[in-house]
């Protein structure tokens, strides 16, 4: 139809003019939204062209924005090559060849079966959970770390990612140690650098040999990985072939043993197995040319080769017998190997059913050729040593970027690999127990077999198949670990969730992680310096178990939350399986080693808290955030709508902030004070009102909210920001007071600043707004705190060295006055201030009894404070009070009567103010000599009126010729002003130098005509004080003496 088509699969294409893209008439109705909502055809094209990015990319979404994208060959790896074989290679390894026979010998067939079954169940359940996560959307390269971090959030992701990294690194150390053990024990024992004659020294020498050769091997492997990973990947197939050939050789040997068991003699003295290194014949004496000749074995136990030599007591008492080490699968030996034979370190390896005469007070000497156990064995310790042999289940998911269909291949390949390896392990346990003599199984290093590998002696056609196969497979596994671990660290570093790791995100020009490789090699060296395979295995068991535990947790959390985005293609999962897997992982951690488990958890916890404290904010739509929302919803529904019990009451504050024309906060100290009062506890809502229409003020509202949030961060105020755009400030503040908060989490206290410029009529926050807000809080039964001189309040960094917080407790309105100083003193700013409580006694009150009662009340409240009762003597209302009242009423009256323009009204008010200032000065001078100080009564009022008619004070009256007479004043106002003046004088006298003064705030008049008078009363009440907090209770008790 000639209309131009969209020619780009990308939503935002900067290379073409926007108007040319959408000229077609078919979609004209939606053309204004095309920038944010793309055409469906464009979106589908974009998804079809999706390419997996390499591991460690910060976010695949961000990289899609790059206009120049490298052409990446479409991956072609299927389930078998891409997942099944890598998992098989990673799972089968060093433990199978070097330790499985020994585990069967020590634990017996039944307990070994339990160990293997438990570990394999754990990995199978983890694989099910992992399959669900891996098939829930496209998993870019990055595998397990990517899955956990995106499912559980950056804190868990970082902690588990680093645990997985440490596990992989220590696995590298374990494989290298396994390689060296095979080399020095079974291939070339003569290559040892360190030697020793006695048994104790020999084990130490062996460890030192492991350290030397291990370090050299690590350096060599690190060089290979640094030079080229492609060589490692090419060799992977060779290493895998070695593993498969070795396992086939074992099965072939077992089958052959059924009809033709190998001839492997083992020498026993009594029931003790002998190390077959230094003798040729298993006998004490032999007949040569009809003469009895001692053998080399005799020479080892006796002090000479003659028949009358002095020999070892046990040697003398017991016979030497030779048995078959591998009697074969049809021999029935399986019944004898069913049960465990745990021993202490340094114990003799003994055959239980052989006759043996014990020798009293036998002294163990390392020079005798017995086979001794090198470590103490028990069930839980064997679990820790065995578990690394089932790790490696993540190998497939780590290659998710290279798979043709990751969502299909990962579950199938991984679960099949675990099923295969589980079958191999479980069958091997039964077959080893059915073919091999128990003492040989417990001979860890094959000493009775002249230093041959036990499993190798069973294999067919030659022991060397196993020795060479296991050597190359462990070597290859070590290289794979050294290749994978640095990439994992690089991925974590490039996500920028752990600030101090960012340096490890860099590498060579081709992206190879050089610095990460260096760190990996250093950590790996720690494992090699430990030097014992049996000591390193439990360490990496911990880290892998922790990783698997969190994979299960991630799946369980997502399933239970029923997140809308949780739609895995893999359907054979259930949250109970994930929960069972998680519990099993946790149990195995503590079974292996409780102190290692606690240490691994401590490391993970520290990383978690560090990322939470210092890490970058990441929004990955993770399950923990969903869990938090669910928990918050549940908690909100549980919180009763009614007010909390007095014991649980704390100020849940709504802070009213004023903004200037630039949408910046006028009084930042209000937030400082909030932080000091709250200390991060309870609810804080920081509210503000913008005047105008929401559609017009939307941008300003966003900017104001950003400014408030920024200030909250600076002042460390933990809470929520709520900004309202309203047609008037008055309505906006009323809306906030009514609707801020949610459900049971609503504010019960309003904190605001005193309007310092309330006398200026053009001030947007006028006295009218203030008084109406006071009325709103009273109606809503909320407490009100008004901070006067807020800019003089201390910042969070300041620390008062001393001073007082003075409470003037005039009327009781729920105990807020008592509670606030206590809460303030929890903060460092006010901690060293002492609390003083003043209360006012009237004429009828017994002030001494009042003081005692107040001290007892404070004692029951568990609040320490100084107590003082101030006696206010009722006396006459002073002329100064009259003048204050007169000025106040006159100003109010004139503003009401004169319908002037705004400017004229200001000038008029100023004129009245100037005139009145002069009048106050003269009235003070006039009042002093007369000493008008009497109790106010009706009679006095009448006499005062008559007195005013006296000609002596005519001059005094002349000054106020324009004003109404004193007698015509509103007597209610006069009395209130009298109270304010008197109280102000008393407070100034006692608390002028206090760090903070807390005062009862009187309520506004019921008659709205006197609102401006109310402001004047409050101004007089607090005049001359440095920092004042006016407190008005919410009409309920907030403090109790009961526990």
From TrEMBL:
<feature type="transmembrane region" description="Helical">
    <location>
        <begin position="573"/>
        <end position="597"/>
    </location>
</feature>
<feature type="transmembrane region" description="Helical">
    <location>
        <begin position="453"/>
        <end position="479"/>
    </location>
</feature>
<keyword id="KW-0813">Transport</keyword>
<protein>
    <submittedName>
        <fullName>Solute carrier family 12 member 7</fullName>
    </submittedName>
</protein>
<comment type="similarity">
    <text>Belongs to the SLC12A transporter family. K/Cl co-transporter subfamily.</text>
</comment>
<dbReference type="Pfam" id="PF03522">
    <property type="entry name" value="SLC12"/>
</dbReference>
<feature type="transmembrane region" description="Helical">
    <location>
        <begin position="212"/>
        <end position="229"/>
    </location>
</feature>
<keyword id="KW-0769">Symport</keyword>
<keyword id="KW-1133">Transmembrane helix</keyword>
<dbReference type="InterPro" id="IPR004842">
    <property type="entry name" value="SLC12A_fam"/>
</dbReference>
<dbReference type="GO" id="GO:0055075">
    <property type="term" value="P:potassium ion homeostasis"/>
</dbReference>
<dbReference type="GO" id="GO:0007268">
    <property type="term" value="P:chemical synaptic transmission"/>
</dbReference>
<feature type="transmembrane region" description="Helical">
    <location>
        <begin position="539"/>
        <end position="561"/>
    </location>
</feature>
<keyword id="KW-0325">Glycoprotein</keyword>
<feature type="domain" description="Amino acid permease/ SLC12A">
    <location>
        <begin position="83"/>
        <end position="254"/>
    </location>
</feature>
<keyword id="KW-0597">Phosphoprotein</keyword>
<feature type="transmembrane region" description="Helical">
    <location>
        <begin position="515"/>
        <end position="533"/>
    </location>
</feature>
<keyword id="KW-0633">Potassium transport</keyword>
<feature type="domain" description="Amino acid permease/ SLC12A">
    <location>
        <begin position="378"/>
        <end position="654"/>
    </location>
</feature>
<dbReference type="InterPro" id="IPR000076">
    <property type="entry name" value="KCL_cotranspt"/>
</dbReference>
<keyword id="KW-0868">Chloride</keyword>
<dbReference type="GO" id="GO:0045202">
    <property type="term" value="C:synapse"/>
</dbReference>
<feature type="transmembrane region" description="Helical">
    <location>
        <begin position="415"/>
        <end position="441"/>
    </location>
</feature>
<keyword id="KW-0406">Ion transport</keyword>
<keyword id="KW-1003">Cell membrane</keyword>
<keyword id="KW-0812">Transmembrane</keyword>
<dbReference type="InterPro" id="IPR018491">
    <property type="entry name" value="SLC12_C"/>
</dbReference>
<feature type="transmembrane region" description="Helical">
    <location>
        <begin position="112"/>
        <end position="135"/>
    </location>
</feature>
<feature type="transmembrane region" description="Helical">
    <location>
        <begin position="236"/>
        <end position="255"/>
    </location>
</feature>
<dbReference type="GO" id="GO:0006884">
    <property type="term" value="P:cell volume homeostasis"/>
</dbReference>
<keyword id="KW-0472">Membrane</keyword>
<feature type="domain" description="SLC12A transporter C-terminal">
    <location>
        <begin position="785"/>
        <end position="1043"/>
    </location>
</feature>
<feature type="transmembrane region" description="Helical">
    <location>
        <begin position="77"/>
        <end position="100"/>
    </location>
</feature>
<feature type="transmembrane region" description="Helical">
    <location>
        <begin position="156"/>
        <end position="177"/>
    </location>
</feature>
<dbReference type="GO" id="GO:0015379">
    <property type="term" value="F:potassium:chloride symporter activity"/>
</dbReference>
<dbReference type="GO" id="GO:0055064">
    <property type="term" value="P:chloride ion homeostasis"/>
</dbReference>
<feature type="transmembrane region" description="Helical">
    <location>
        <begin position="375"/>
        <end position="395"/>
    </location>
</feature>
<keyword id="KW-0630">Potassium</keyword>
<dbReference type="InterPro" id="IPR004841">
    <property type="entry name" value="AA-permease/SLC12A_dom"/>
</dbReference>
<dbReference type="GO" id="GO:1990573">
    <property type="term" value="P:potassium ion import across plasma membrane"/>
</dbReference>
<dbReference type="GO" id="GO:0005886">
    <property type="term" value="C:plasma membrane"/>
</dbReference>
<dbReference type="Pfam" id="PF00324">
    <property type="entry name" value="AA_permease"/>
</dbReference>
């Amino acid at each position: 139809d000639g209309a131009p088509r969209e020619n780009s699969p990308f939503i935002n294409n900067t290379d073409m003019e926007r108007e040319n893209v959408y000229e077609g008439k078919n979609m004209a109705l939606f053309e204004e939204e095309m920038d944010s909502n793309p055409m469906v055809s464009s979106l589908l094209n974009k998804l079809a062209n999706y390419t997996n990015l390499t591991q460690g990319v910060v976010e695949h979404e961000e990289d899609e924005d790059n206009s120049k994208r490298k052409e990446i060959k479409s991956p072609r790896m299927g389930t078998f090559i891409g997942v099944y074989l890598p998992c098989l290679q990673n799972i089968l390894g060093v433990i199978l060849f070097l330790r499985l026979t020994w585990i069967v010998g020590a634990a017996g067939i039944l307990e070994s079966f339990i160990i293997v079954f438990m570990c394999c169940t754990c990995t199978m359940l983890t694989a099910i959970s992992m399959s669900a996560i891996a098939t829930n959307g496209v998993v870019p390269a990055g595998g397990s770390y990517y899955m956990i971090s995106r499912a559980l959030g950056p804190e868990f992701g970082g902690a588990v990612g680093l645990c997985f990294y440490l596990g992989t690194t220590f696995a590298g150390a374990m494989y290298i140690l396994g390689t060296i053990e095979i080399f020095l024990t079974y291939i070339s024992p003569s290559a040892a650098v360190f030697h020793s004659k006695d048994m104790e020294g020999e084990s130490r020498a062996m460890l030192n040999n492991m350290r030397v050769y291990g370090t050299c091997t690590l350096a060599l492997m690190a060089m290979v990985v640094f030079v080229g990973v492609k060589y490692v990947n090419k060799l992977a197939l060779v290493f895998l072939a070695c593993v498969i050939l070795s396992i086939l050789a074992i099965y072939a040997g077992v089958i052959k043993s059924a009809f033709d068991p190998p001839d492997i003699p083992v020498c026993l003295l009594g029931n003790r197995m002998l190390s077959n290194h230094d003798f040729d014949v298993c006998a004490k004496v032999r007949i040569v040319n009809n003469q009895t000749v001692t053998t080399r074995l005799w020479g080892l136990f006796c002090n000479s080769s003659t028949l009358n030599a002095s020999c070892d007591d046990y040697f003398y008492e017991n016979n030497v017998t030779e048995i078959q080490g591998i009697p074969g699968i049809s021999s029935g030996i399986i019944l004898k190997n069913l049960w465990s034979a745990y021993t202490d370190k340094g114990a003799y390896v003994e055959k239980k059913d052989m006759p043996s005469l014990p020798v009293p007070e036998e002294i163990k000497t390392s020079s005798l050729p017995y086979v001794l156990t090198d470590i103490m064995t028990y069930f839980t310790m064997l679990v820790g040593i065995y578990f690394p042999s089932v790790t490696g289940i993540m190998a497939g998911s780590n290659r998710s970027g290279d798979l043709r269909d990751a969502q299909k291949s990962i579950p199938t390949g991984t679960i099949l690999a675990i099923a295969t390896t589980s079958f191999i392990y479980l069958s091997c346990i039964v077959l080893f127990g059915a073919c091999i003599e128990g003492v040989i199984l417990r001979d860890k290093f094959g000493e009775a077999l002249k230093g041959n590998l036990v499993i190798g002696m069973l294999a067919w056609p030659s022991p060397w198949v196993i020795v060479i196969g296991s050597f190359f497979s462990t070597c290859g596994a070590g290289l794979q670990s050294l290749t994978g671990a640095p990439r994992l660290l690089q991925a974590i570093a490039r996500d920028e969730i752990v600030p101090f790791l960012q340096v490890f995100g860099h590498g060579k020009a081709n992206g190879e992680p050089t610095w990460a490789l260096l760190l990996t090699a250093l950590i790996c060296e720690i494992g090699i310096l430990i030097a014992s395979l049996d000591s390193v295995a439990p360490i990496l068991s911990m880290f892998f178990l922790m990783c698997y535990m969190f994979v299960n947790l991630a799946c369980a959390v997502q399933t239970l939350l029923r997140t809308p985005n949780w739609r895995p293609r893999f359907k054979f999962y259930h949250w109970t399986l994930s929960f069972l897997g998680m519990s099993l992982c946790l149990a195995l951690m503590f079974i292996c080693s409780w102190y290692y488990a606690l240490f691994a958890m401590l490391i993970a916890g520290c990383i978690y808290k560090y990322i939470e404290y210092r890490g970058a904010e990441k929004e990955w739509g993770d399950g923990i955030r969903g869990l938090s929302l669910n928990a918050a919803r549940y908690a909100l529904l549980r919180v009763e709508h009614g007010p909390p019990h007095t014991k649980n009451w704390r100020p849940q504050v709504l802070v009213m902030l004023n903004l200037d024309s630039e949408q910046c906060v006028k009084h930042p100290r209000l937030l400082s004070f909030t932080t000091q009062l709250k200390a991060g506890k309870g609810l804080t809502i920081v509210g503000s009102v913008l005047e105008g229409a929401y559609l017009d003020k939307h941008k300003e509202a966003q900017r104001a909210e950003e400014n408030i949030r920024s200030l909250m961060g600076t002042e460390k105020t933990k809470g929520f920001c709520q900004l309202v755009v309203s047609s008037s400030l008055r309505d906006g503040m009323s809306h906030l007071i009514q609707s801020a908060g949610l459900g049971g989490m609503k504010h019960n206290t309003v904190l605001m600043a005193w309007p310092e410029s309330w006398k200026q009529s053009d001030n947007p926050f006028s006295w009218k707004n203030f008084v109406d807000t006071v009325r709103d809080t009273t109606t809503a039964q909320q407490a009100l705190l008004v901070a006067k001189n807020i800019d003089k309040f201390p910042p969070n960094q300041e620390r008062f060295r001393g001073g007082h917080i003075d409470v003037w407790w005039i009327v009781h309105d729920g105990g807020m006055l008592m509670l606030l100083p206590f809460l303030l003193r929890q903060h460092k700013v006010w901690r060293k201030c002492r609390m003083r409580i003043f209360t006012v006694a009237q004429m009828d009150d017994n002030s001494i009894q009042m003081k005692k009662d107040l001290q007892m009340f404070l004692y029951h409240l568990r609040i320490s404070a100084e107590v003082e009762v101030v006696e206010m003597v009722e006396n006459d209302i002073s002329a100064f009070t009259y003048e204050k009242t007169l000025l106040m009423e006159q100003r109010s009256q004139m503003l009401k009567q004169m319908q002037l323009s705004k400017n004229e009204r200001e000038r008029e008010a100023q004129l009245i103010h100037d005139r009145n200032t002069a009048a106050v000065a003269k009235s003070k001078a006039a009042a002093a000599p007369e000493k008008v100080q009497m109790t106010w009564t009706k009679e006095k009022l009448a006499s005062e009126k008559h007195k005013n008619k006296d000609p002596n004070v005519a001059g005094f009256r002349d000054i106020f010729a324009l004003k109404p007479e004193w007698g015509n004043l509103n007597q209610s106002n006069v009395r209130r002003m009298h109270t304010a003046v008197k109280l102000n004088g008393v407070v100034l006298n006692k608390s002028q130098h206090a760090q903070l003064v807390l005062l009862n705030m009187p309520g506004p008049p019921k008659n709205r005509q006197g609102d401006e008078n109310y402001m004047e009363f409050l101004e007089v009440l607090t005049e001359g004080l440095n920092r004042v907090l006016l407190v008005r209770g919410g009409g309920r008790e907030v403090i109790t003496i009961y526990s």
